Amino acid sequence: MTKDMTKGSPMKLILGFSIPLFFGFLFQQFYSLVDTVIVGRFLGTENLAAVGATGSINFLIIGFCMGVCSGFSIPVSHKFGAGDYTGLRKVVANCVWLALGFAAVLTVVTTMLTRQILIWMKTPENIIDRSYSYIWIIFLGIPVTFLYNMTSGVIRALGDSKTPVIFLVMSSFLNVGLDLFFIVSLHTGVQGAAWATVISQGVSGACCLLFMVKKFELLRIRKEEWAPDGHMMRALCGMGVPMGLQYSITAIGSVILQSATNTLGSDAVAAVTASGRISGFLACPFDAMGSTMATYGGQNVGAGKLDRIGQGLKSCIRLGAGYAVIALLVSIFMGRSLATLFLDSSETAIIDNVRFLMIMNTAFYFPLALVNIIRFLIQGMGFPTFAILAGVFEMLARGLTGFVLVPLFGFTGVALGSPIAWLFADAFLIPAYFHVRKTLSAKLAADRG
To answer: N or C: which end of the chain has fewer CB within 10 A?
Structure first.
């Protein structure tokens, strides 16, 4: 069930590991896509905008949860790469305690502050009530977000990227059925879309947990290994919190940009929503490459094989460059057709804006590939603080766009937000990678000497 990424061809390992992850991320995006398609088609443009207006705050909070879980899984990959299975079980046990605490606190805080945040973001008055109804339920489901991302992260850290995908595919089909049942049959509006997402993710998380318990003998934690370890918890937080903050700091820029977009009206919000869902699908390979490099980097650092990290990085960059070209061609020739999944064909102005956003984003997908590949590799190598700093650069870029470019250039300013953010992040991450390599090489040489 496990995969050792410290031996064999880096390209074959990266491809073999990332392809199942790609389908996993694809079906994870399927949650949002189905919600958006059904909402847009059955409930209309205003309800589509209501769901879309929550996108950045959703990313701010749920992204933090996902980042924390990803950070927690890095020490698991280190222990696995080093062959320390007793230490691995202790790490997983302390991950469980921390995940329970984070989930409880975040659920209480976010559900209490949701409406105020939407008001601060200048959410249009004609959609704010529906936006609140949708995102409040999503935040109520934070515990199941932790459940899925924690369990799937541990499974991937042990080299199994396929199993979480299988459960996610199952729950994605469940999501479709629940969406149709709640929205079309019960007429529950946007709340139904939110409940469908929460229930479906809960099912996938429960399946991952049961699989871990039954199939991974090395994860059968003994009674004494369940004891909370303050030192280990601090170390886990040192990995998880920076990765969570990386998402959240990046999302602060997105919140600023979303607030600026909201001032352009619900039609602009609807265009950004539809484009964002399509872009989420198109960017799935980069998400898979990033998660792959986190595990690849973590296992090879644990095994002390730094020479393989550079080989793997070059292989993954080649994959990213090739896919970036494909994504741009899809946007150019299929942008309008994809937009009509969400919008009635009579909404020609909004459809044109969706295609424009898609082309602007995919034209800069190679910088996005570098952001994901290098950032997650650095995290897997044990330097999560650099992820925060890269997030700061993205936040500054999107903040600049929201405060300056959108007021000056309107919707064109919105389209420039993500490309500028990716370029800013790369300007930091590329030299940061070489610094990390140099630091680890010196440490390894000192340990051997």
So the answer is: C
Alpha helices in 266-410 (DSSP H): 266-282, 284-302, 307-339, 348-362, 365-380, 385-400, 406-409
User: Which are the contacts of 114, defined by CB distance < 8 A and separation ≥ 6?
Assistant: 57, 132, 135, 136, 139
> Which residues touch 71 (CB under 8 Å, ≥6 apart)?
236, 239, 240, 241, 242, 243, 244, 379, 384
Taking the C-alpha atoms of residue 153 and residue 101, their distance in angstroms, rounded to an integer, is 18
- 3-state SS class at 250: helix
Amino acid letter for position 137: I
> What does the pLDDT look like over 351-407, one tens digit per residue?
999 999 999 999 999 999 999 999 989 988 888 778 778 888 988 998 899 899 999
Length of the chain: 449
Secondary structure of 29-85 in the HEC alphabet? HHHHHHHHHHHHHHHCHHHHHHHHCCHHHHHHHHHHHHHHHHHHHHHHHHHHHHCCH
Structure tokens at 383: 């330097």
Across the 449 residues of the chain, what is the mean pLDDT of every consecutive 10-residue run? 74 85 73 72 79 79 84 80 78 88 93 89 84 92 91 81 81 86 87 90 89 80 83 85 77 81 85 84 89 86 85 93 95 91 84 94 96 90 81 88 92 93 95 92 78
The pLDDT value given to residue 334:
92
User: Greatest CA span in the chain, whole angstroms?
Assistant: 71
CB 252 within 8 A of CB 60: yes
pLDDT in tens, 233-260: 888 888 788 778 777 777 778 778 888 8
Q: Which of 256, 149, 164 is nearest to 207 (CA)?
A: 164
Q: How many angstroms from the chain centroid is the CA of residue 150?
A: 13
- Radius of gyration of the chain measured on its C-alpha atoms: 21
Dihedral angle of Cα 366, 22, 164, 3, to the nearest 10 degrees: -80
Tokens of 396: 């500054």
Q: What stretch of H or E contains 25? A: helix 10-38
